Amino acid sequence: MENNGIQDSLLNKKAQYFDNCPGCKVDQLKEMQRGFPIKQFTTIWTIVLCAALPISSLFPFLYFMVRDFHVAGREEDINSYAGYVGAAYMLGRTLTSVSWGLVADRYGRKPVILLSIIAVIVFNTIFGLSVNYWMAISARFCLGAFNGLLGPIKAYATEIFRSEYQALALSAISTSWAIGLIIGPALGGFLAQPAEQYPAIFSSASIFGRFPYFLPCLVISAFAVVVVVSIYWLPETLHNHPPPAGPRPESYDALEAALQGSKEAQERQNTSSKSLFRNWPLMSSIIVYCIFSLHDMAYTEVYLTTM
């Protein structure tokens, strides 16, 4: 009977909210929310699409771009140089993704999301205007290094949606990412070298004639400008206050700690504080994801550059 009383008091206790905390305001809105939040869903979907477009948009014309730079001594070496440009983006992301996650946890999800889309505008445009090989590879590296979107946007999706919609939000992120990887090469293939493909519309003396690979980058950057404007209305979800003393009332861990005592709770805390690299279920999932991503990117680049 005593345990039942503790359980009822914990489950019926209301959540504590703090004034001037953006995360608490979002939690309050979620409690009052009725129906599916289509506005936030559409905005997040569009943001992820914008971030995914420049990843693969260069592959249809990358071979010709590197060829026009005259950096390869032999024609057989062009693919190798093109591979370095394609890998520069992922190298930048690899080196900075964890740091962007830490920044998002400390300063908020919204600033990282905003900076990532601004990076698309700036560095994707610079890439389209590249006049030599090192300018192109530097622009792609910076685009990846400053695009720390994917981790924070997934955390944001779980925080902005009620629990019954979180699975749908995360699946929509993956879907939008995949659609961006599909549309990107289509844009690159249709819009690259417009003075040659569409001479009736684009003159060879125009900027698109002098920079034949600028148009697809410009279209993606223009879309990113629209996305930046839409981010203004996204609420911040990070809590700017210390966690309330004691366990959270809605947590099952908190309920078990109250019923079973502090010893079991301490054991769980010690287990959760172990090094991530010793967490085999987590590391095995990361390894599988890395292998799948390696296969996906290698196939995409080899296939599109040999068409």
TrEMBL record:
Cellular component GO terms held in the UniProt record: plant-type vacuole membrane; plasma membrane
Stretches that traverse the bilayer: 42-66, 81-103, 112-131, 137-156, 168-191, 211-234, 276-294
Domain Major facilitator superfamily (MFS) profile span(s) in chain numbering: 40-307
Cross-referenced Pfam families: MFS_1
CDD domains recorded: MFS_SLC46_TetA_like
Family listed: Belongs to the major facilitator superfamily. Phosphate:H(+) symporter (TC 2.A.1.9) family.
Protein name: OLC1v1001088C1
